[in-house]
Amino acid sequence: MVDVTPLKGITYNKEKIDHLDDVMSPPYDIISSEMQETLYQKHPYNFVRLILGKKTEQDTEKNNRYTRAQKQFNKWLQESILIGSDEPSIFPYKIDYKMNESSRTMSGFFILLKLDPSYKKVKAHEKTLSKPKADRLNLMRACQANLEPIQLLYIDEQNEIQKKIEENIQDKPYISVKGYDTFIHSIWKLTDDETINYIKKKLKDEILFIADGHHRYQTAVNFAEEMKSKHDSNNSAYNYRMVILANMFDEGLAILPTHRLMHLPHLNRTKFIEQVKKYFMVKKYQIENNKNYTELSENIKNQIKTDSNHKFALYFKDSYFVLTLKDEKTMNQLATNRSETWRTLDVSILHKIIIENILNITQDSLEDHVKYTREDTEALQFVDEGRFDFSILMNATKIDELKTIAEAGEHMPQKSTYFLPKMLSGLVMYKMNEKSV
């Protein structure tokens, strides 16, 4: 059973902060070191100080980014920089943005979700990495809070839940800000019992799909298990997680590709390409020295765009290669224990044939050799700057593929999906204590 309940959410105090835009932050996992510094300089109460504080050479077990986040969080609460809701609420959420010059709106709502450690009602489609889980667990232990939401999708073909919410929210949002992405992020407070009970009943027998936040969901499960010795109650606040729920059929949702950045300084490129040619048709393109990254990345994206084939691009400093898989049946031998759907995913083909079979990168060494970017231009520029040896550009996973994989209990390789728009961090928080459930 899917068990959701309203929360006494914590928000920034509009009477204490003149411009709420200045204190909001991107999600922690897309913040670069340069962006972190920019956010630090932007405002002394910027949310980055909680979700991704700076490390120092003087850090110790008792004084580090996690303990500093705890002190900041508690201090901001004491000083009413952050304020809690008087009564349990859900927080309807809208993001207005443009994509390819087209205006879109994504709708969802903040709510508490009871954890499902068995993943029977909450389905994951990606595997998780050990380092991000350890990092988020340390932060959760220190702050005893959900500082950022997890995004999950439910299936509502008639959009009945959202229609019910729309009937019961006022025109003027409780908070509306322009995010780092230039998108307009707005939340409302909704305490209407009838609407909340309608949502609870409607979702009771549904299945939810994690869209963004696999590491944070598993971290919440791990933390709840830790706390069982102290809190035996099955309804303890630790058994719930603050989430944003959105309709899988929401027209404002889009999935973008996540490109691979490869760190392999001793790679023999000639030998590598020859091995790739065993499985792919390969076409080489030379690159002019005077590069326009936006234009070049757009050209590459158009060259690998396809409805029926499996295409990738390998980008090096002086040239790039467009790959087209010769035969899907290759995956039958390399992934015998996987479903047909899994074997025909672009991301599965990439990881099984190129990353594992040709480059011999195992699951244990993946984090040492593979990083990720959602920005098309970064996939090129970071290679040219020498940060990585080459990059792999790819097409996006389709939402029906995600649903099929999750329902079957299978997992795609890490970073298989990138949902747009990204949720903004700093809009709503949840302090885990019995009074907040």
What proportion strand? Answer: 15-25%
Number of domains: 2
Mean residue pLDDT: 92
Q: What is the strand tally?
A: 21
- The low-pLDDT segments are none
Q: Considering DSSP H and I runs of 4 or more, what fraction of the residues is helical? A: 25-40%
Computed CA radius of gyration, to the nearest angstrom? 22 Å
User: How many strands, which pairing sense, and closed or not: the largest β-sheet?
Assistant: 9 strands, mixed
What's the structural blueprint in terms of helices and strands?
Layout: E1 4-5, E2 10-12, H1 33-42, H2 48-51, H3 65-78, E3 82-84, E4 91-99, E5 102-114, E6 122-123, H4 130-143, E7 145-146, E8 150-154, H5 160-167, E9 175-178, E10 184-187, H6 193-203, E11 208-212, H7 214-227, E12 240-247, E13 254-256, E14 259-262, H8 269-276, E15 280-286, H9 293-304, E16 311-315, E17 319-325, H10 330-334, H11 340-343, H12 346-358, H13 366-369, E18 370-373, H14 376-384, E19 390-394, H15 399-407, E20 418-420, E21 430-431
Parallel strand pairs: 6-11, 8-12
Antiparallel strand pairs: 1-5, 2-3, 4-5, 4-10, 5-12, 7-21, 8-11, 9-10, 13-20, 14-18, 14-19, 15-17, 16-17, 16-19
Key features of this structure:
437 residues; 21 strands; Conserved hypothetical protein from pyrococcus furiosus pfu- 392566-001, domain 2; 6-stranded antiparallel sheet; 32% helix; alpha+beta
